[in-house]
Amino acid sequence: MNSTRAFAVVALGVLAVVPACDDPVRPDPPGLPPQIETLGSYSFSSTGLTNNDVFALLAVSNGELWIGSASGIAKFPDLNATTRDADSYVSELTGLPNSKVRVMAEYNGKVYVGTWGGGLGVYDVAGDTWTQIQQKTNGLRNNSIADIEVSATEDRIYFATNDGVSIYNPTAQTFTSVITNPPLLDKLVSSIEVVDFSGTIIRWYGPRVEIRLTPAQIPSHGISVTRTPGTSYTYTSANSGIAEPNVNDIVYDSDRQSYWVAYGSKGIAEVSLTQKTWTTDTMVQGLPSNTVYSITRANGILWAATLNGLAKRVGEHEWQGYNRGGGLQADRVRALYSPDGDRLYVGFVDGGAARIQTH
Q: What is the end-to-end Cα distance of the chain in Å, rounded?
């Protein structure tokens, strides 16, 4: 070291050479956060979205891409289009019972749009007409719809509401009801997954608990399960590995013979049917947040929407997170949708929507 750039210090008989103040030891610059490519983006404009809070996306059988937001539906001409005609949107003035769209699904030529507070808008694709189903109409239990699950085997459509589950027979245009147990708190149903296991229909109902539970109440609340023929039970912290009774999404994974459960504040659980285990992944395993809204599979990969970004499963229980610094339009990812098992569309709160590269 050049003597003009350093000085010696003698302390307790030890000679040390210390860099001069004009020669600091600088750390390497931080690297870029993990990056992900956006293939197309959608945002609020006269030819884009009607609102940047996106909760639902759907590829309709007429070829259109519908994006549902807090202010209705923007209809794009195809899956690759990112602009629409100025009048290609649906609101309370043009068919919806309420503009706060939360979930959409198509079955037998009709699109069912669940709104938050207005019930259901039903669009006939061939006839290009709208009808509405609202609370108490033919038995719909509540106008706030959190999830829609189609069971083609049963010819039924399940609606998760703020007052239990309404099961719709589209042929008879009638409803039956399910009130999960215990009814006092679990009437707020957030998610439904219905699977046909070789003729045995198994239904998982995820609860949303919006009031504080006492320690004595927690062990009795969780995911309600019913089977055909009629048996039922509830996964609780007393009899299973469920982490909390606040569930945002439930998805069955046929590749792994597992259910994936998205929690309100405890991450994601994989419930293995073969091993009979519950394994919870959190931020420790790489999730951007322990609040997970939605789960889907695209390009053979599991993806999760979280409060602080998009998560991609990269290992047995390992996740890679992406947020605004990694190429996303916003941090809060609210909705995920894969129309064909390959393309992945992402809906943001205060960020619009995007199509994401999955390879």
A: 50
Spans of all domains in the chain: 91-236
Give CA separation, 224 vs 102, 229, 317, 340, in Å: 22, 15, 25, 29
Structure tokens at 266: 């405890």
Give the C-alpha separation, 141 to 166, whole Å: 6
What percent helix, strand, coil does the chain show, rounded to 5? Answer: 5, 50, 45
Each residue of 212-258: pLDDT tens digit? 677 787 788 899 999 987 788 899 999 999 999 999 999 999 999 99
DSSP 8-state assignment for residue 97: S
Rounded to an integer, what distance in angstroms lies between the CA atom of residue 240 and that of residue 247? 15
Fold of 91-236: Methylamine Dehydrogenase; Chain H (2.130.10)
DSSP class of residue 27 equals P
Q: Which strand ranges, in their side-by-side order, compose the sheet holding 258-263?
A: 247-253, 258-263, 268-272, 277-281
- Stated pTM of the model: 0.90
E strand or H helix at 158, and its extent? strand 156-161
The H or E element containing residue 185 is helix 183-186
